[in-house]
Design a protein that fits this description.
The chain has 7 helices and 9 strands. The chain has 264 residues and is an alpha+beta fold.
Length: 264
């Protein structure tokens, strides 16, 4: 039962007792770990700078295979993100990213790419106009790394046409993991109508491109769509998605009589 060293981002903190805390950490090598920080609220505790959510530190951990609760032995604060204290939207984006990691990454299953992506997001939050696009990119990264990247290639790109002077919206079936043709869907199946501009924004991420140049509304809708999809995967609603993208509503559900109408 040796102590291991890692760098980690604190995701959540709870009071354990008058002098101790429990913390949820995302370690680059350890993955998501819940740990007990004994005596962390005492003045002489070996936890420099105090332990707060959305800070990066060099940590020492004792992980016991027999229990889900590890022991945090060291917390050397290495990086804070001042934008989280100055800008409410940045704070909401950081909290949303933390919730995504907690809800979608398996306990103690390390993923250095998601860890690095989380740090990149937190560092980008100082540039307020980039916050929504940066969070959507992180949502996409988490889906890819956890094996749930949505299929954006069905129906074919030719899906468009004249419907009331607009384009036919794409159809997204969360239980099928992506875009579908109307003929493929069962009558009782949940299907969302998605604007083609939203699909186009996501295809840029799929191709490894940035969202710079996309309209802010398309980025917002992409974030809401991915949030609703991620919620369907974990089985309950992500609470923080709406704080960033301006509404907790999911994409508009389509039924057989409205699947060719323009999406909202």
């Amino acid at each position: 039962m040796a102590q291991t060293s890692d760098q980690a981002v604190c995701l959540r903190v709870w009071d354990w007792s008058e002098t101790s805390q429990t913390v949820s950490l995302f370690g680059r090598s350890a993955g998501v770990v819940r740990a007990l920080a004994k005596g962390s609220k005492r003045p002489a505790a070996p936890f420099s700078g105090g332990i707060e959510p959305l800070q990066r530190a060099d940590v020492g951990l004792i992980v016991k295979p027999s229990t889900d609760l590890a022991t945090l032995t060291r917390w050397d604060l290495a990086e804070v993100f001042p934008a989280l204290r100055r800008n409410l939207r940045a704070l909401h984006a950081g909290l949303c990213a933390a919730e995504l990691v907690i809800e979608t990454c398996a306990q103690r299953d390390a993923d250095a790419a998601i860890f690095d992506g989380l740090l990149e997001l937190l560092r980008t939050l100082k540039e307020e106009p980039k916050t929504p696009a940066a969070l959507v990119a992180f949502q996409w990264l988490v889906l890819v790394r956890t094996g749930y990247a949505p299929n954006l290639r069905e129906p074919p790109d030719s899906v468009s046409g004249a419907v009331g002077g607009g384009k036919v919206p794409a159809l997204f079936a969360p239980m099928r993991g992506g875009l579908v043709e109307a003929e493929q869907v069962e009558s009782t199946e949940v299907v969302w109508r998605v604007r083609l501009e939203t699909v186009s924004a996501l295809r840029r991420l799929e191709a490894g491109e940035q969202l710079e140049g996309c309209e802010s509304e398309s980025i917002r809708r992409a974030g809401l769509l991915l949030g609703a999809y991620q919620s369907s995967i974990i089985g309950h609603e992500l609470r923080t998605i709406g704080l960033v993208f301006g509404g907790a509503h999911p994409p508009e559900q389509a039924d057989r009589s409205t699947r060719s109408e323009q999406s909202a």
